[in-house]
Amino acid sequence: MQYEQALDWLEGLNRFGIRLGLERVRAMLSRMGDPQRRLRVLHVAGTNGKGSTCAMLDSILRTAGYRPGLYTSPYLERFTERIRLAGEEIPPSQVGRWAERVREAAAGLAESPTEFEAVTALAFAYYAWAEADPVVLEVGLGGRHDATNVVESPLVSVICSIGLDHQDRLGDTLAAIAGEKAGIIKPGRPVLSAPAGPEVRRVLEAAAHSAGAPLHFAAQELAWREARPTDRGWQGTLQGRRGIYRGVTLPLLGRHQLENAMLAVGAAELAMEEGLPVGEDAVRRGLAAVRWPGRLELFPGRPELILDGAHNPAGAAAMAAALREHFPGRRVRLVLGVLADKDAPGILDALAEAGPQLVCTRVPNPRTLPPEELAALARARGFVTVVEPEPAAALERALAEADPEELVVAAGSLYLVGALRAAAVRYGGEA
Is residue 404 reached through a cis peptide bond, with omega within 30 degrees of 0 on the bond before it? Predict the structure, then answer.
């Protein structure tokens, strides 16, 4: 199968929507020889921060001399971003090769797989063939019934920050959502969690106890002794579970990335205890080298431009806090596009302190909230709004109207960020 044919087939599976459950992906993988069983996996779930945590883990492991797989979603600009090996995207020829194998494995199933199930099976097959070791595996949605949860015995399970998102599928309380995320906890395997409130903590503790899984909370076992914000990220000293990492540079904006870094380092240390050696220098150099496009990604210029995929109230609040901390006193002009199934009022409330100037646009996705509706919600909250439906035109307008010392920030959906990133690179260069 050619690359373009593979993408057409995978995209065609979208018509089956999101159907959580493991039966279909297990059946496909069984027909393919269960490639996931030949992989050492670090499994990462959560509402916010799991992509950044995965990127840091991948960078640390590559610096330590491993050839890790990195499986994430969604992609920003190219499908091949989702499946990486030793820092390189999967070659298009390999997408075609393994998509053909997955299609053969899916033939005759009682139900057709979803796109995410097929892509997950493709990734497992590719990583097993290429002898990736280990694989940093990001959950797509939830955890318990997510296609990635066919992994039976991960080196480490990581649960990042939990918040309200995808309530239609995961439940409308933090406890319900935590229960879904806790589904990646496996018998006897260590678990590392982000700081959690009492409601979430009780759920995680009960799940870990039931599975006989050692549960660690990052904030209890790791700590930043000092962390100084810069206009490019953070510098400081991190107290790990196994030692002190001095002179750490973290080139990611936002205080929430300090928590994600603790999770990545803590997971690497737990993996070390499970037979995956990672040295102190690899941790320090891996954090310094991490890149995670589209997440508070800064592009130089006058005005400076930031792209961020904040797509729920917690993500928007983290973005607003990062702007205050790294760029105190700077005026902000927002370009915002939101999907209709997201909490647009909550996102706007979280961004209220960022600044009143807002250009409302559509997300290049059929589920977009019409920008006129977004503008009406924003005006009711005191924003000064204009509507520019085309994303590229919205960004161009914001950059043209902003003062040189302002910040222009485009956010609200990774689909929007992906559509704008090429223009951002042309504007300010590769970040």
Answer: no
